[in-house]
Specification:
Elements (H helix, E strand, L loop, with lengths): L8 E5 L4 H12 L3 E6 L2 H13 L4 E5 L5 H15 L4 E4 L15 H26 L6 E6 L12 H22 L4 E8 L1 E2 L12 H9 L7 E2 L1 H12 L10 E4 L7
Parallel strand pairs: 1-2, 1-4, 2-3, 4-5, 5-6, 6-9, 7-8
Bound molecules: nicotinamide-adenine-dinucleotide.
């Protein structure tokens, strides 16, 4: 067994599917005690069962990342169960059917911003207030997107939420990383084979046109495990001098 995260306590949100599930399994395999959160209790249970069946420690909290009370309960569960919190991975997120500014409703805008940006901010706040008093500080990893770096990888709300998450990452790094012992980085995945694609049920024609023009139709497709490998690196001492960075993992899509 590899032990790069031995006895670290790690929260992973959106752990019932896709990249969150892969990150949870990878962290457990590296020796971390994982606290998994998802709004979907069924898939969350399945992942916890898979991890504990392989002899690792996992706890779950059904949590909606758009609800501050759920986020507080999640952080408290980690600390009450394991006595510390070393790693927070803000991974849960949703897409927006590529809706353009002219077509996005207030409800959709508010929902995407709540789950993709406000929830991660609140989780960072609660986690930082635990981590800053710990001898070894802590590590925060935000799962952003190439949609947090470029304009046409999602709709208006998705782009705004992920650009916001990138800004939040840099602000935390520049404050709590530079003047404290909390490192904060983000991952910007390109196309990854997960369940999120199934949520694109009503794509906006103009939004879709812009995304296609950005080369999305023949973009390289990654696997969740390839993003989990980046998340292990960012959570381990191997990345001890990496702070405030946004690591693209897109198979070279945006290099073209
Ligand atoms: N798949 C891609 O191509 C891609 C590319 C770039 C970035 N991302 C980002 O990666 C992250 C993970 O997405 P994925 O592709 O693994 O998708 P996924 O749909 O497979 O998994 C997302 C998980 O988040 C959970 N979730 C959704 N809303 C939630 C909420 N309010 N509270 C708690 N959990 C919630 C879902 O139940 C699901 O288990 C997202 O932030 C997404 O924006 C995905």
């Amino acid at each position: 067994m590899s032990t790069r995260l031995l006895d670290k306590v790690a929260i992973i949100t959106g752990a019932g599917s896709g990249m969150g599930k892969s990150i949870a399994i990878a962290y457990a395999n590296e020796g971390a005690k994982v606290v998994l959160a998802d709004v979907n209790a069924t898939t969350l249970d399945e992942v916890v069962t898979e991890i504990t069946a392989s002899g690792h420690s996992a706890t779950s909290v059904v949590a909606d990342m758009s609800k501050s009370a759920d986020i507080k309960a999640l952080i408290e569960t980690a600390v009450n169960t394991y006595g510390q919190l070393d790693i927070l991975v803000n991974n849960a997120g949703i897409m927006d059917n590529f809706k353009t500014v002219g077509n996005v409703t207030d409800d959709l805008w508010d929902k995407v911003i709540a789950i993709n940006l406000t929830g991660p901010f609140q989780a960072c706040r609660e986690a930082i207030n635990v981590m800053k008093d710990q001898k070894n500080g802590g590590i925060i990893i935000n799962n952003a997107s190439v949609g947090g770096l470029y304009g046409a990888r999602g709709g208006a709300a998705y782009a705004a939420s992920k650009h916001g998450l990138v800004g939040l990452t840099k602000n935390i790094a520049a404050t709590y990383g530079t003047f404290g012992n909390i490192r904060c980085n983000a991952i910007a995945p390109g196309g990854v084979a997960t369940n999120i694609g199934n949520t694109i049920t009503d794509p906006d024609p103009l939004g879709g046109q812009a995304i296609a023009a950005a080369g999305s139709m023949d973009a390289p497709m990654g696997q969740p495990e390839q993003i989990a490998a980046v998340a292990v690196f960012l959570a381990s001492d191997e990345s001890s001098f990496v702070n405030g960075d946004i690591i693209k993992a897109d198979g070279g899509w945006t290099a073209r």
